[in-house]
Design brief:
Blueprint: E1 4-7, H1 12-15, H2 19-32, E2 37-40, E3 54-58, E4 61-65, H3 73-78, E5 90-93, H4 98-101, H5 119-124, H6 129-135, H7 139-149, H8 161-170, E6 181-186, H9 195-202, H10 204-218, E7 222-228, H11 232-247, E8 263-269, H12 278-285, E9 309-313, H13 314-326, H14 328-332, E10 335-336, E11 339-340, E12 342-349, E13 355-360, H15 365-372, E14 382-387, E15 394-396, H16 406-411, E16 420-425, H17 430-444, H18 450-467, H19 472-489, H20 493-497, H21 499-508
Parallel strand pairs: 1-2, 6-7, 6-9, 7-8, 12-16
Antiparallel strand pairs: 1-3, 3-4, 4-5, 10-11, 12-13, 14-15, 14-16
């Protein structure tokens, strides 16, 4: 009898619900029955409500079962699940599950296929083909291809990646031997986001390859992954992948036999939300307190240690290999308008089917919330969603037909940000959510500028007076004036974007700001 390959995810989301115990139970039961198996710990497929998701390789494809707890293992063996046998937990062929089948997975295409740090499997599935093709080009041609693809930063600002890379490529052209850096912002701190973690834990070579291409493109020889310390599983996967990349000649003094040099290492951040802002991140990476820098100069000209620096987030770098593997023209055929390629969307909060969905730009919020998410877990109507992290706007049902597009979201005073969607049903108090935004800003402010540091504290106080009915019209105007000051007076996006959730809650859900008690009129 041939050895059957069984896949059990090893990422943090699966581990949190017992994946290790399930894997141990499968190994023990197979041994007890004298059955030879190969147990592969892969990355999650993104269907998190089904974790631990167990897959079995059969002649008919990979058959999925889930969620599989350790106590379910005996009955799975009894049902001959190693041959795809029928069971109450059977989900059919993984690729045919509707949630998974209808996606356009580009940077997440390999997540879940094999063990995350198996470099041979990575290469067998197209890995490092993008780097090979990039190495055949001149640096300016690499940058031009990224520009042609239409790739924009998959963080908050959605800045065109090619422009940033070209600025670094052209920097200090009179001193070509001067140091340049590649920095990955892996300080994933937005509420409702986990795509960075999922990719680093499930397919770290994609990030390593993307950063290597960036280094070759702009003439940088050193790269750093700035990783939040709360991601220990990602750190282990990245460290192992980097070591194997060195061993196989994809990092170091002779990248892919090209004679080009690129080194890469992981550095841990202490978990401050402000270090998701690129200049505060650079300060932290230099060993200083994470505070925002004044701009200009831009990091592309004077970044890490005062040298030209490309700084992008995980998903931006992870999108690069497929651009060169398939071609810029192929990549830009996904999406709409100026939003090209795909975006990993994370569905969280009060949602029935939470997980990660990667789709080309252009899908609507309604499609994501109902076709993929299945509506709320509570069964109550969806009242609001927050898109783009704790600084994103709260959007009502009337906006759910808005397509995922940077400009379309800007038109409704929203932002896509990192692609996180947090869902709320009709029991939510939107005034409390608005106050939370101000509280969050006050707690996470680096303290460098007054509008953010003081404005957020005053904002919480104003909202308290507003909902208490203490001269409500005056308090509402004061809150709007304060938000305007924060928007235009803050040094960075933390203070500048905090008004988005506050004003959106006030504009779309004004009834929640009505006094909870009889209104009080303040004399004078």
């Amino acid at each position: 009898m041939s050895i059957v390959r069984i896949y059990v995810p090893c990422d943090a989301s699966a581990l949190s619900v017992g994946a290790d115990e399930t894997a141990d139970a499968i190994a023990l039961e197979a041994s007890r029955r004298g059955i030879a198996i190969e147990l592969v710990r892969n990355g999650t497929r993104g269907m998190l409500w089904l974790e631990p998701l167990v897959e079995v390789q059969t002649p008919h494809g990979r058959i999925a079962y889930g969620p599989v707890l350790s106590e379910d293992v005996g009955s799975l063996f009894d049902a001959d699940f190693l041959q795809g046998g029928a069971h109450a937990l059977s989900l059919g062929v993984t690729e045919e599950i509707a949630y998974f089948r209808n996606q356009q997975r580009l940077c997440f295409a390999r997540v879940g296929l094999n063990a995350p740090t198996d470099i041979e499997a990575y290469r067998a599935n197209g890995g490092y083909e993008g780097l090979r093709k990039a190495l055949a080009l001149e640096p300016a041609e690499i940058v031009a291809a990224v520009s042609e693809s239409g790739l924009r930063g998959r963080g908050g600002a959605a800045f065109p990646t090619g422009i940033k890379w070209k600025t670094v490529l052209d920097a200090q052209a009179d001193r070509p031997d001067d140091q340049k850096y590649i920095v990955c912002n892996a300080d994933e701190g937005d509420s409702g986001t986990f795509s960075d973690r999922m990719l680093m834990e499930g397919d770290p070579f994609t990030l390593v390859e993307g950063m290597t291409i960036a280094g070759i493109a702009v003439g940088a020889t050193q790269g750093y992954i700035y990783l939040r310390c709360e991601y220990p599983h990602a750190r282990r996967a990245l460290d192992a992948a980097i070591l194997k990349a060195y061993e196989h000649g994809f990092l170091g003094d002779n990248v892919g036999g090209s004679g080009k040099h690129f080194d890469l290492e992981v550095r841990l951040g202490a978990g401050a939300y402000i270090c998701g802002e690129e200049t505060a991140l650079l300060e932290s990476l230099e060993g200083k307190r994470g505070q925002v820098r004044f701009k200009p100069p831009l990091p592309a000209l004077k970044g890490l240690f005062g040298k030209p620096t490309v700084i992008n987030n995980v998903i931006t770098f992870a999108s690069v290999p497929v651009i060169f593997e398939r071609g810029a023209d192929w990549y830009k055929n996904f999406g709409m308008g100026r939003s090209r390629g795909s975006l990993p969307i994370q569905l969280t909060g009060n949602i029935k089917h939470g997980g990660l969905v990667e789709l080309a730009f252009g899908a609507t919020l309604r499609e994501l919330l109902y076709d993929y998410g299945g509506g709320t877990l509570s069964g109550r109507p969806i009242r609001a969603v927050q898109v783009g992290g704790p600084l994103g706007a709260y959007l009502p049902e009337s906006t759910f037909d808005t397509p995922l597009d940077y400009e379309a979201f800007a038109a409704i005073k929203g932002m896509l940000g990192h692609g996180g969607i947090v869902v709320f049903d009709d029991s939510v108090d939107m005034a409390a959510q608005a106050r939370y935004a101000m509280e969050f800003c006050a707690a996470e402010s680096c303290g460098k500028c007054t509008p953010c540091r003081i404005g957020s504290t005053r904002g919480s106080e104003v909202i308290d007076r507003l909902v208490a009915g203490l001269d409500a019209p005056k308090q509402e105007q004061l809150l709007r004036d304060l938000c305007e000051t924060m928007t235009y007076g803050s040094l960075c996006a933390l203070g500048g974007l905090t008004p988005y959730p506050v004003l959106s809650a006030l504009d779309h859900f004004p009834e929640d700001f009505q006094p909870k008690v009889a209104p009080v009129r303040v004399a004078g």
